[in-house]
Design a protein that fits this description.
The structure is a homodimer. By secondary structure, chain A is of the alpha/beta class. Chain A contains seven helices and nine strands. In chain A, the strands form three sheets. A three-stranded parallel sheet of chain A has the order 1-2-3, with helices on both faces. The longest helix of chain A is centred in the middle third of the chain and has 16 residues. Chain B binds a DNA duplex through α3 and α5.
Chain lengths: ~180, ~180
DNA sequence: CCGGGACGTTCACGACGACGAAACACGGTC
DNA sequence: GACCGTGTTTCGTCGTCGTGAACGTCCCGG
């Protein structure tokens, strides 16, 4: 299924509007193909591009290659079946860690408040304050082999992001968008 | 002067190769304009795009707007959720630093008066005069890793701007003259 | 030309709170 | 019984923020 994530979807616009929506939600790269007379869309997402038809084959391939390149350095970590998968490998998660990691991956690159993490980890009956710290610590140690890290924002929360040196530009843009929303 | 940072550079390719290099180094958004018969470049940077000439004016404008939108969430520093984000990375801020940085980023590149900063940092009950200086110092040290700097305008206030590593050439020359005199 | 004052920079310190980390205890499972 | 998942206690470390003081620099009046 990961093969699909890196594959560029070619979408006729505006005919396939619904398919575009689904592709966006999946976070997959996509190239919009515009018929003559169609207005060019303005979207900031680095994984989306457009091209007016007819166009030279080479140009089309160049845009597809660019989107593929962005997507390949830009795979988001995902929580699947008690595991955290990222960059072609994965680590097992305990049930509680799964809830924590889920809350963090949903807002990848953005600050997730302590209370939000508390609610995610313990929907009812939150334990002592320190329990969260301990589980964040254990989660940290698990995911560092995936090239991920959890950074602290003191008195606010935590941020899940790429480890040192492997941050992709498009991710930064997206996480900043997420943070502002 | 700093208005240039968010502005999309229009670069004829491959005629203006050198200018392209400079623009890339600055991290500024750029749109390559290809003459007919030129091969389309494949670059993953979300702040770079290309277009084959001749092209409809609307299409050109659409691509420029997209680059501007990406640049605005990427090139200008922003205070979000207890962090200062800039150029793809970020640093945590203490609550007080967040208020200071907020006042400075709102007027990025312009002088912000001491009183304005005082009011931003301490809405009620301003502490000793020196407190502001100390916090500006600490903020300076934090943001230098982001390629940002706070410059002093004596008896007026402070200016938040790009650091020396990523300035336009004209700006660098100017600040070096100021320092050596 | 010199002295003094205003202003800015930097360091060191103290108090407090948030966070990190180790160690331990307990229950459930294979 | 060994192991894992989870929560708690305890203690150390580090961030935060105000203050005082030393030092440097600029400018102004004598």
């Amino acid at each position: 299924m990961d093969a699909m994530l890196g594959e560029v979807a070619l979408i006729h616009w505006p005919d396939e509007a619904e398919r575009l929506e689904r592709t966006r939600r999946r976070g997959a790269p996509r190239l919009l193909l515009l018929g003559p007379g169609t207005e060019a869309p303005a979207v900031a997402d680095p994984l989306e591009d457009w091209m007016r038809l007819p166009a030279p084959d080479d140009d089309l391939r160049a845009r597809i290659r660019t989107l593929e390149a962005r997507a390949s350095t830009d795979v988001l970590p995902r929580v699947v079946d008690g595991t955290l998968a990222h960059h072609g490998t994965w680590v097992p998660l305990s049930p509680l860690e799964e809830r924590l990691a889920g809350a963090l991956t949903e807002r990848f690159g953005a600050v997730v408040g302590r209370e939000a993490l508390m609610r995610a980890a313990w929907p009812d009956a939150p334990p002592s304050r320190n329990a969260l710290d301990v589980h964040v610590l254990r989660l940290r140690r698990r995911i560092e082999n995936l090239g991920l890290e959890i950074r602290t924002v003191r008195s606010r929360g935590y941020v899940l992001q790429m480890g040192n040196g492997q941050m992709a530009r498009s991710q930064m843009a997206r996480s900043q968008m997420a943070r502002s929303s």
